[in-house]
Amino acid sequence: MVSLAAEGTGSAPIAMREPTASFFEALSGIHKDAFAALDEEGWSGSSIEDLYNHEGVSFFIAAIGDAPKAFAIVRAVAGEAELLTIATNPQAQNKGLSVVILNKIIAHLKRGRIDRLFLEVRSDNAPALGLYKKAGFKNMGVRKNYYKTRAGVLFDACTLVKNIR
């Protein structure tokens, strides 16, 4: 697990911390709320907890006060890493939390001698695509009809990569 230092953006301090058992349902709520806008199912607390117990997986959680507001999960294997998810509570969006988390992830991966960070993002998720472009990710390709909404609509996934070193 990753030990994270305190950060601040704007007027509210952001405390970066490791997850505890009490956070998994809160993280699930954040994920479900964040992805509801895309008509997608969010991850369950048990799914998130299961990832927590896998080797090579790191959690990055931004909390304002004691309440988690955003998080990301990264898996690193053999010199490469994948951003499995990043989600921000809709009421906390546009406050820089995802930028703070993404910067912490990149710094952590540099220390861990990771060469590249991969991710997939739905092709119509403009805010996420903007975040990743600003962070220096490059387009590697497209997975056709990869994401499926609750209504059954299919969307392509953009596969992105960032060279860390």
Any key phrases for this structure?
disordered N terminus; globular; alpha+beta; 28% helix; 165 residues
How widely separated are the two ends? Answer: 22 Å
Oligomer: single chain
SSE pattern = EEHHEEEHEHEE
The dominant shape is globular
Helix content: 25-40%
User: What integer is the average pLDDT?
Assistant: 88
Q: What spatial order of strands do you see in the largest sheet?
A: 1-2-3-4-5-6-8-7
The tally of beta strands, per DSSP, is 8
Describe the structure in your own words.
- This protein has helices spanning 23-36, 45-52, 97-111, 126-134, and strands at 7-9, 12-17, 57-64, 67-77, 80-88, 116-122, 138-148, 154-163.
- Mean pLDDT is 88; it is low at 1-12.
- It has 165 residues and is of the alpha+beta class.
- It is built from four helices and eight strands.
- A hairpin with a 5-residue loop joins β7 and β8 (154-163).
Entry summary:
The protein is an alpha+beta fold. The chain has helices at residues 23-36, 45-52, 97-111, 126-134, and strands at 7-9, 12-17, 57-64, 67-77, 80-88, 116-122, 138-148, 154-163.
